[in-house]
Structure formats: structure tokens, C-alpha cells
Amino acid sequence: MAAWETNVRKVIPYTPGEQPDCADIIKLNTNENPYPPSSAVERILREIPAEILRKYPDPTSGALVTALSEYYHMPEEQIFVGVGSDDVLAMSFLTFFNGKEPILFPDITYSFYDVWAELFRIPYECQPLDENFQIRTEDYLRPCGGIVIANPNAPTGIAKELTELERIVAGNPGVIVIIDEAYIDFGGESAVCLLPKYDNLLVVQTFSKSRSLAGMRIGYAFGNQKLIKYLNDAKYSFNSYTMNTLTIAVGVEAVRDEAYFQETVGKVVAAREWTKKELLRLGFTFPDSQSNFIFASHPKYPAKELFEGLKRQGIYVRYFAKPRIDNYLRISIGTDEEMKTLIAFLEKYVGENL
Ligand code: PMP
Predict the structure, then answer these.
(1) Atom 12 (ligand 1): residue with closest C-alpha?
(2) pLDDT of residue 23
(3) Which residues sit with their C-beta closer than 6 Å to ligand 1?
(4) Of 82, 163, 234, 324, which residue has the fewest beta carbons closer than 10 angstroms?
(5) Is 92 helix (H, G, I), strand (E, B) or coil?
(6) pLDDT (tens digit per residue) in 286-339
(7) 19 backbone dihedrals φ, ψ, rounded to 5°
């Protein structure tokens, strides 16, 4: 090791799902929306003159904040936006988790949380999900430095009751509780309605899933005015121009197209419910997902083999070689056609291997 390496900030990075560079695969591995973004997005991308890019973007992303404020009936001072919810969450970890007590999050959850904790030197303790992959409220009613809960949780898809989440927020008035609602538009109850009651709550959402804009990178957070001010102070101390001009304009159009949003979310939810029935028929078990993916396991066929078999057929799903979940596949919900192809393959696989 070179002498200078002693002082390097070393991190084991988060591993995103594969993005294979071929068109004819069925891509059910990164929880993207199978439908394109609103046509208003396409139109604005065609209309924006390149000349506009000569100037720096609006550092406050004002137009997007206003559009979100109108859509959610939330004061602008209570909205923070960032480059995907990953950016919003990273900034929130940096801003709010600055104490000595460990922050708490489940052992099985979005695998970026421990990466940010390591990166920012935030002490943390993982709380094991119960044997049914449920978050136990009691585990989060103890002294700590903060709490992060994905609701619905990933990769299980399980939504936690809002009354239970409220117990966690109310029971921890001295620290910030972050509820990561990346998948909330597909099911579960949003904690946004708790915001008037609790000044320690931050709710984070994204355009990546329900608004089909994973490639654009737009995330946002709602919280008490003071929280948002602290977040913005940290952001402006790091990079004033996180959101670029095109992204801001695209985000505005996407959030305004309510009809298209409802239509595509409805289609994904319907395909999820159909897929659940089919998977049950083929002998799979899974927690009851409220998200745009299903976390499925088969008692007879090891998940790793299924994962590889699917991949050979050009069907990409996600497999995590991690304790407790290494016999599960996380299957994102695609179009009706894609889900039919997946089920047809699994039906054959299960049949042939009987
Ligand atoms: N939270 C959860 C629970 C997720 O699964 C993801 C997607 N990987 C994110 C946040 C980040 O999504 P994005 O940065 O695309 O908004």
C-alpha cells in the first residue's frame, strides 16, 4: 500500500443492478417502470433550445419545487429536491445523522443505507426483520441517533401500517426519522399526512419508479421548514447546482400529467396482482408486495439457479447473495406481455424440473 493510501477514505460502494446494453431482453431487475414517461416529457425535451444550457441552472430548482408544491398542496419551504432520491437520502444522512448514538434501520432493506453510513462515518445498528420479514416497531423505540425506514420496504415490498410508523416517529422526538417512500405510489399509506404533527419527520420520494424517470434522476423530500433549511444549507455547501436545467423542466411536466401517472401506476399494480396469482399457482411464496416488485422464493428450486436460468432466456431479475435472502428473487413488474413471458418460462421450468 502506498503511504498516501493510509489517508484515503475507503468505501465499499453500493452495487446497482445490471444495465445490460441490449434491446431484446426483459428487464425486471432494477424496479424501473416498464412504461415511458409522460408524452409531455418528450415534448419539452424537443422544445427546449440548447441555448438555455449556456447558463447555470436555477440553484433552487424553483419551477420544480413550485410544481411539487401545487401537486401535493405543500408549502414550498417544506420541499427539497435532489438528483434522485439517492442524492436526497445521502444529503439527509450527512445533514441529520451527526451524533454519536447509532442510527437504526432494518437488516434487510435498501442496501445503500449502510453504504452512506460507512461513507459519512455514521454509527449504525441494523434491526433484524422478524421471520416474516416484518419491521418490528419495538426495535425502533429506544435511544438512537436517527431512523431510516423504507415503506414499502425493499426488497421485500412489504408496507408497514401508518399507525405503526407514527409510533416510531412519535417515540423518537429527539432524532430525525426518515421514511423512504420510493415505492409508495404503488401501495401503502404515505407518511406525508403526519408532517403537520411531527417536526422530526422527513418523507423522501422519487420520480424514478411511478413517474418512469429513473434516467432523469429526480428525488424530493418533504419535511418541516427547519429541516428543509438545514438540508439546503448542506446542499449549498456541497454543490449548488445538483439539478440541471433539463431535469427541472422535465420534472415539472411529469408532475403535472396526473392522468398519465394514474394510468401507468394502475397498469403496474394490476400486473403485480396478476403476477402474484400466477406465482402462487406455480408454488412460489412471497410477502404481499405493495410495491412494483415481488420478492419470491420457491420451496423446490434454488433462487440462484432460477436467476441464472431466467438470464439465459434474456429475462433479468435481481438476486442478492446475502444472508436470509439468498433464496429469493426480486422480480420487478413489467408490462403485461413481459409478465406473461416470465410466467410462461417459470411454468416450463417448474414443470421440467419436477
Ligand atoms: N430508496 C429505495 C428503497 C430504492 O429502492 C431506491 C432505488 N434503487 C432508491 C431509494 C433510489 O432511487 P432513485 O435514486 O432513483 O430515486
Answers:
(1) 85
(2) 82
(3) 84-86, 110, 150, 154, 180, 182, 206, 208, 214, 219
(4) 163
(5) helix
(6) 999 999 999 999 999 999 999 999 999 999 999 999 999 999 999 999 999 999
(7) -120, 75
Percent helix, strand and coil across the chain, each rounded to 5?
40, 15, 45
Residue keyed to cell 422526538 = 173
pTM value is 0.97
Q: Is 104 exposed, middle or buried (0-12, 13-18, 19+ CB in 10 A)?
A: buried
Q: How far apart are CA 276 and CA 133, in angstroms?
A: 18
- Position in ligand 1 atom list of the atom nearest CA 207: 16
**What number does the ligand 1 atom closest to the CA of 217 have?**
15
Burial bucket for residue 246 (CB in 10 Å: 0-12, 13-18, 19+):
middle
Ligand 1 centre to CA of 254 (Å) is 18
d(CA 115, CA 186): 26
Burial class (CB in 10 A: 0-12, 13-18, 19+), 258: exposed
* Residue in 83, 108, 180 to alter for ligand 1 test, most ligand atoms within 8 A of Cβ: 180
Tell the burial category of 63 from Cβ atoms under 10 Å away from its Cβ (0-12, 13-18, 19+): middle
